[in-house]
Fold these 3 entries.
Entry 1:
Amino acid sequence: MKTIAIEYLNKKRKAAPLAVFRILFGLLMVVSLIRFWHYGWIEKLYLLPRFHFHYYGFEWVTVPGNWTYLLFIICGLSAFLFAIGYKYRLCIITFFLSFTYIELMDKTTYLNHYYFVSLVSFILLWLPAQVHFSVDAWRDKSIRSEYIAQWHIGALQLMMAIVYIYAGLAKLNTDWLVDALPLSIWLREKGHLPLIGQLLDERWLHYLFSWGGAIYDLSIVFFLMWSRTRVMAFIAVLVFHLLTKILFPIGMFPYIMIVGTLLFFSDDFHTKILKLFSRICAVDYKVFCNRICYIGKPRYRRLSLSVLTGFFVIQLLFPLRCYAYSGNLFWTEQGYRFSWRVMLMEKTGYANFKIVDAVTGKRFYVQNEDFLTAFQQKQMSTQADFMIEYAHYLGDHFRAQGHQNLQIFVESYASLNGRKSQVYLDPDIDLLTLANNFKNRDFISPLYEN
């Protein structure tokens, strides 16, 4: 086993796939950030809310007011610069820190592909993506290399495999496979689409999409790895992600995954792409073809391997934390985030907060729209950690107004994948006595099948 690992780590291959990924991933990030700004989401999601929900342990991350625009500029500029390979190491660090900070500013905006971008940019911190077809390699002959270690590309391929396989495993549940939920709900809502709208109401199609999606996620990486099935697999990738882009508003995620699957193609395929780029940029590609393999400093190589090994151990184990909790995962959402459960549930809810003076018994109800945006209310009304944090915010707010002996209760109801609405949190528990942590939330009412 040790011999096999050593042989793998010593294998080399052309650096072209890593260079292509660096360019396309960086440019996609630039487009994504411009798109975010263009649609006014910086103001809507970060500047307008008077209160922001935080990730546990990252309460110190705050929205820097109008400086948020500068943060997006820095993030976008660093993405463009690492894409072209200028001051790569500095720029990928800047991008990772700025993008992750943006992601952490408000838990309400959590999306799997934001998390994926942070993870990929972290991996890129430890890879020599600047040694081939980059401004840095053009200017500095000492780093210019045609070859790199195979594991440099393998690390990104492994990240892709983790996302796909865990997403596929998450689909192996009764709602998805037996009842075609929540796809049957979502697809029926797309009946207005031209040409395919009427077809989307067919029950057999809901099952085709559900089972097909699970099989696709669980198998696509293996078909991409095998040269004989790679082209057909990539066609499936294009069809799958472009279809999901048409049917569902999931932003840049389909394009990011399409670019990621290119990593499984041959060195010659990526060399042709770089030659095309070189003609567009009027650069002599032969300059980078020097038959040199990038080795790097031994100490840094060992550090990179150690860090990424630990990183992938965490990535393999962290999505499994949900099994440490009781109850239906989609109902409680304990261990749901950061585990590649992509578009698996349709959940709606209602939460009415009651402020009580424990001594006098006086009470009043909160108008959530006075404190939260409509999007924040939607997220808060179905997730226990949101409700707890919001309750503590309300407690601080009303104490500052002179209220004393506060207790805060919530009357909450939620519906999962079309089920009848049910009580979500125990209405008799004072939310101010609860804290957001990793303990099991046994105050969440059980899900009753109906």
Entry 2:
Amino acid sequence: MAHVINDECISCGACEPECPVEAISEGDDKYVINADTCTDCGACVDVCPTEAIHPE
């Protein structure tokens, strides 16, 4: 199960360098997680200041 980033994302970028498989990238309005690449490790969840990342 992949994680997703909801609209609470403030595009701070804290999550992107934490992803060990580089599944997170900057989107138009917020960061996005590639579900095909995400390994569900949860590293991004721990660093998100707005708690915008949740399991899908």
Entry 3:
Amino acid sequence: MLVKSHRLVKQKDFEKVFKQGRPYYTKFLGAMILANQLDFNRFGIVISSKVSKKATERNKLKRRIKQAIRGLDKKLKSGLDLAIMARPCFINQEYKIVAGELERIFTKLKIFK
């Protein structure tokens, strides 16, 4: 689990990232990135009911994304807000694919140290 201070939780934070952030999309995931004035990164994960009607499947996907973020967070530049969005074809993907997609997104956004 991500520490609460490292999560986007308020609606106004998500809205700010979606309105002012820089987007990047792949087949499975999308990401919006925006600089913040903090010394650490904050992450928000969005998985709509269009991806899956079952809450258990959506929560499973969130856990996989969070685990992949934990592995990559130390390699990222600090001071960023990131909103990660799952796309409908993302359902039933293995952890390796999730981690690979996130790494590809972060590389394209040029946020690795």
